[in-house]
Structure formats: structure tokens, C-alpha cells
Automatic annotation (TrEMBL):
Keyword Metal-binding among UniProt keywords: no
Family: Belongs to the NadD family.
InterPro entries in the record: Cyt_trans-like (IPR004821), NadD/NMNAT (IPR005248), Rossmann-like_a/b/a_fold (IPR014729)
Keyword Nucleotidyltransferase appears in the UniProt entry: yes
GO molecular function: ATP binding; nicotinate-nucleotide adenylyltransferase activity
Reactions it catalyzes: nicotinate beta-D-ribonucleotide + ATP + H(+) = deamido-NAD(+) + diphosphate
Gene: nadD
Organism classification: Bacteria, Pseudomonadati, Pseudomonadota, Gammaproteobacteria, Enterobacterales
Function summary: Catalyzes the reversible adenylation of nicotinate mononucleotide (NaMN) to nicotinic acid adenine dinucleotide (NaAD).
Assigned EC number: 2.7.7.18
Pathway recorded for this protein: Cofactor biosynthesis; NAD(+) biosynthesis; deamido-NAD(+) from nicotinate D-ribonucleotide: step 1/1
Protein name: Probable nicotinate-nucleotide adenylyltransferase
Top-level taxon: Bacteria
Length: 216
């Protein structure tokens, strides 16, 4: 009998701001593969993209508001404590050390991130510490751009959900999650032009954004 309570997943991002395009696919994923806990980890200084407009405390508060009524999610603020770039490889290595050798751990990414995965800092260590769960995104290729990278993907791919629950790390699972055409950039642009965003993010987050005068 597979223990479906064991698998823990980590979901990182800038969350500037957090929105339904982050939350709803992960909620669907949890139902799809039997996840009982997803840890949201906001980045502090993302190395591969422009720096966030909202500060660390504001982004932390927005995530707290977004997940207050969602027991699936917990918040981990360790990366917000750092002043240097947040590298997923380092965080996942620390998470593995804290969780022990046998705990099944997974890192949730989007399909766009999988296609650039080989450019990540110490990418080759990540599957030593966790599984990768990839949320499908329309419009993105299903194959890697280089043959060597495709061989790497093929070697680690699994279609068996049981593998995620019974093995501690090392597998890549492509999940058929729903796609919500929402981006933080789109939300920031709409807010800057006083356009409504009620359907894009939780009401408590939107209220906080207005209180703080963010994205004006």
C-alpha cells in the first residue's frame, strides 16, 4: 500500500503578486497525484529575471493572504531571508538534508522552466534531491532543444504517480494540469491602468495591493 501522505512538494516563484495562475494549477495537481502538502517558497533575489516590484515582506504577506483558507499550502520564507541570489539547487539540497534521505520530495515547475533547466545553477544536482513535477503549458515544446538534454529527460521521465510517492528523488513527471492564462506582468499592467483584476487573484490579495499602493 502506497503512503499517499508522504510526498511533499515545493513550489517556488517571485509571486509579484501571487495569483490564480499560480494557485489553481497546483491545487489541480494535488488532486491529480495525491499531494497533501505543498510548500510555497517566494524567491528573494531571483537570479534569472528582473527584480520584484513588491518587497520581500509585501510578497510574503500576499502569499499568506492567498493561502489563509487553503490547508494544502504552507509558506516557507527561508529564501526571503537571503540577500544574495536564490538558487533552487542550494535550497533543494538544504531541504533534502532537513527531510532525511528517504522522504519523497518534489519540486513543481512549469514546462517553460523545464526547457531551460540545463541553464540553471548546478542543475545536475537537483534530481539527486527531489523529483521534478512539470505543469504542462500550451505553446511550449514537449522536446528539449539539444539531443543530450532530451536523453537526460527520457532517462528520468516517469508516467507512474507511484514513483513520486515511493522513491525519494530522481524522477520527472509531466502533469496534465489546467492552464490559466494569467501572468503577474499582466496583473501589474492592469493595476497600473486602474483596470479590474478581481477574476485574476484572491480578493484579500487585491485589497492588500490597494492598501499598500502597489503596482501603480
Amino acid at each position: 500500500m502506497v503512503d499517499m501522505k508522504q510526498l511533499q512538494a515545493l513550489f517556488g516563484g517571485t509571486f509579484d503578486p501571487v495569483h490564480y495562475g499560480h494557485l489553481k494549477p497546483v491545487e489541480a495537481l494535488a488532486n491529480l497525484i495525491g499531494l497533501s502538502k505543498v510548500t510555497i517558497m517566494p524567491n528573494n533575489v531571483p537570479p534569472h529575471r528582473p527584480q520584484p516590484e513588491a518587497n520581500s515582506q509585501q510578497r510574503k504577506t500576499m502569499v499568506e493572504l492567498a493561502i489563509a483558507d487553503k490547508p494544502l499550502f504552507t509558506l516557507d520564507e527561508r529564501e526571503l531571508m537571503r540577500n544574495e541570489p536564490s538558487y533552487s539547487a542550494d535550497t533543494l539540497q538544504a531541504w533534502r538534508q532537513e527531510s532525511g534521505e528517504k522522504a519523497p520530495l518534489a519540486f513543481i515547475i512549469g514546462q517553460d522552466s523545464l526547457l531551460t533547466f540545463h541553464s540553471w545553477h548546478r542543475y545536475d544536482t537537483i534530481l539527486d534531491n527531489c523529483h521534478l513535477i512539470v505543469c504542462r503549458r500550451p505553446g511550449y515544446a514537449l522536446t528539449m532543444s539539444e539531443e543530450a538534454h532530451q536523453r537526460w529527460l527520457d532517462a528520468h521521465l516517469t508516467t507512474r504517480v507511484e514513483d513520486l510517492h515511493t522513491l525519494p528523488a530522481g524522477k520527472i513527471y509531466l502533469a496534465e494540469t489546467p492552464w490559466f492564462d494569467i501572468s503577474a506582468t499582466q496583473i501589474r499592467q492592469r493595476l497600473a491602468h486602474d483596470e479590474p483584476c478581481d477574476d485574476l487573484l484572491p480578493a484579500a490579495v487585491l485589497e492588500y495591493i490597494h492598501q499598500q499602493g502597489l503596482y501603480r
